[in-house]
């Protein structure tokens, strides 16, 4: 019954996605009115309607006085609607065309949020799946976005939140490195496991994953018969208790 309910939920989700993909023709109207209507939809949280109107403005008036703000609004509503690829494409276009825009700190912040969201999967959350061994590329991109924001705009309103998110992303990346080292250990690739552990400890010192990697490193040394190296590693484990 549980699986049947989940399948029904998935079917309903696909049906709703199909329905929402049908585009509504936006009638011709002055840009000021069209933008006002788009803002109303945005403020009401009607993301699909806001997207339709903003996309119409973007295509009909690409060089008008609303152009930059329309693109900024599209970045936001694409993100809120879960259209992450469209959000990233719009962000990258905006950065390319407006590299010195006054809201560039916000654009970088949204890029970080969007890349972070790509690492989150609804089904993983539903089944409480450990994602530590998943491809960390979106996480690396997000970390780079937030790092760039903090470096370029240290006094930005978004800088402190970006720093906190970098801390969480760092732990996520460290867990991926740990999962990889554990994979090598289970495959009896002792040297590869040791190298991965050492890389993790150098790149992400102070993380829980770095401490746990010492156990993998010690076991790999043991399997290689390197008693002195194993002893030194176990001494480090003693100095860094859980």
Automatic annotation (TrEMBL):
- Each TPR repeat occupies one of these ranges, namely 68-101
* GO biological process terms held by the UniProt record: Gram-negative-bacterium-type cell outer membrane assembly; protein insertion into membrane
**Domain annotation Outer membrane lipoprotein BamD-like: ranges:** 27-235
Please give the CDD domains that the UniProt record associates with this protein: BamD
Q: Name one GO cellular component term.
A: Bam protein complex
Q: Which UniProt keywords apply?
A: Cell outer membrane, Lipoprotein, Membrane, Palmitate, Signal, TPR repeat
Subcellular localization, as worded in the UniProt entry = Cell outer membrane
Region forming the signal peptide: 1-22
- Topology within the bilayer: Lipid-anchor
Function (record text): Part of the outer membrane protein assembly complex, which is involved in assembly and insertion of beta-barrel proteins into the outer membrane.
Q: Which NCBIfam families match?
A: OM_YfiO
Family per record: Belongs to the BamD family.
Complexes and interactors: Part of the Bam complex.
What's the protein here called?
Outer membrane protein assembly factor BamD
């Amino acid at each position: 019954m549980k699986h049947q309910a989940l399948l029904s939920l998935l079917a309903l989700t696909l049906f709703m996605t199909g329905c929402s993909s049908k585009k509504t023709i936006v009638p011709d109207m002055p840009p000021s009115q069209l933008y006002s209507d788009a803002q109303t939809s945005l403020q009401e949280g009607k993301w699909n309607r806001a997207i339709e109107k903003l996309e119409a403005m973007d295509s009909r008036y690409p060089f008008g006085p609303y152009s930059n703000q329309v693109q900024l609004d599209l970045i936001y509503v694409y993100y809120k609607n879960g259209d992450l690829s469209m959000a990233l494409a719009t962000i990258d276009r905006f950065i390319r065309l407006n590299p010195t825009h006054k809201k560039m700190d916000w654009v970088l912040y949204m890029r970080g949020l969007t890349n972070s969201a790509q690492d989150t999967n609804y089904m993983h959350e539903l089944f409480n799946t450990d994602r530590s061994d998943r491809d960390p590329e979106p996480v690396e991109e997000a970390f780079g976005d937030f790092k760039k924001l903090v470096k370029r705009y240290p006094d930005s309103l978004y800088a402190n939140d970006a720093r906190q998110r970098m801390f969480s992303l760092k732990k996520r990346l460290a867990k991926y490195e740990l999962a990889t080292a554990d994979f090598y250990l289970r495959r009896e690739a002792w040297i590869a496991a040791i190298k991965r552990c050492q890389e993790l400890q150098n790149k992400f010192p102070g993380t829980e994953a770095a401490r746990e990697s010492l156990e993998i490193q010690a076991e790999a040394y043991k399997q290689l018969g390197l008693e002195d190296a194993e002893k030194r590693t176990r001494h480090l484990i003693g100095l860094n208790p859980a």
